[in-house]
Design goal:
Shape: globular
Number of helices: 12
């Protein structure tokens, strides 16, 4: 008696059909434990990217002599990295846990590496933002000395923050892919690309909102580059992963990612067409920020959905086993 795919045969040749398996587990529990992370971690993904993109925007304004762009990027970067720290500490439960993570560096742990990246980026971004207040200090005495010292210190700190920004923008993608959540784990090549693009686009959004049109050139170029990376990566996770792409196309995650694509397209179009219109530029900046929020939450919720349904764990495992058997046979 030899087994057949989808059934088996009796001696007389009669085929007994076996019904398709239903992907359930004991007592109806999922095979994988869904991530315990809540909306605050999805918000952390967004604010971390916004901080990174804004610092790159500020560095661009600094190096090209665009003070409004530099100022907007530095202030937004400090606000966003502060929010990121709050969200991370909220998830950890106690502020002391964040401090404890800085006591040990584990290169093999994305969370440990990310904590160190955040710890390096935050003070640099903060110092650069504080330097923007130098003009408000008196010109004499000790305040006058601080007033003269802050701009060059802020210049160096701004470049240091920008140098750390790519790691801050992408490590969260590595962090998600390092989990056992099927649709995150399988998307390990695309998640850092999506998050890098989203960071650039959100930083560009800050510049388009805050800077006059004459100074917004770098922001427009960032918007195009960020949108290209974000749309490419999102398209890949929705089409390359086979069954594991399904959570990104359906339900709430699918709606969020479609909204992100639409807002990204609107934002880029407004950035390119609004070169002379401050209102149109600002609206395109709002669209880009909204796109970044929708994309981050869509990716987050897509992964959570894949962990809750057993088929996203069972079917890929069976397919890998069949491929291995075919290769060995």
């Amino acid at each position: 008696m030899s087994p057949e795919r989808g059934g088996r045969r009796r001696r007389g040749g009669e085929e007994l059909r076996v019904p398709e398996a239903e992907f359930t587990s004991y007592y109806g529990w999922p095979i994988l434990k869904a991530p315990v992370w809540k909306w605050d971690i999805a918000a952390y993904l967004f604010t971390g990217g916004l901080a990174a993109g804004s610092s790159l925007l500020a560095a661009g304004g600094q190096l090209t002599g665009r003070p409004a762009l530099r100022r907007a990027g530095r202030v937004a970067s400090l606000a966003a990295v502060t929010a990121s720290t709050v969200f991370l500490i909220k998830d950890l439960g106690r502020p002391a846990r964040f401090h404890h993570m800085l006591r040990v560096a584990k290169p093999t742990s994305p969370m440990s590496v990310g904590t160190w990246i955040l710890g390096a980026f935050g003070p640099a971004a903060g110092l650069a933002a504080v330097a923007e207040g130098a003009a408000w200090l008196p010109g004499r005495g000790l305040p006058g000395l601080v007033r003269r010292a802050l701009p060059p210190v802020g210049h160096a700190a701004g470049l240091a923050a920008a140098a750390t920004a790519p790691a801050l923008a992408t490590y969260t993608g590595v962090l998600l892919a390092d989990t056992a959540v099927p649709s995150w784990h399988e998307a390990y090549p695309e998640l850092p690309v999506i998050f890098a693009g989203s960071a650039l686009a959100s930083g560009a959004g800050v510049g388009l909102i805050a800077a006059p049109c004459a100074q917004a050139g770098p922001a427009r170029r960032m918007a195009v580059a960020g949108a290209a990376l974000e749309l490419y990566g999102a398209h890949r996770v929705e089409t390359r992963l086979g069954l594991l792409s399904e959570p990104y196309r359906t339900g709430r995650p699918g709606r969020l990612l479609r909204a992100g694509r639409a807002l990204t397209a609107v934002g880029v179009a407004g950035a390119l067409l609004g070169r002379r219109s401050r209102t149109l530029s600002a609206l395109s900046g709002v669209a880009l920020l909204g796109a970044s929020v929708a994309t981050r939450f869509g990716i987050f919720e897509g992964g959570v959905a894949s962990a809750k349904d057993p088929k996203y764990t069972v079917v890929p495992q069976r397919e890998r086993l069949e491929r291995r058997r075919a290769a060995e046979g």
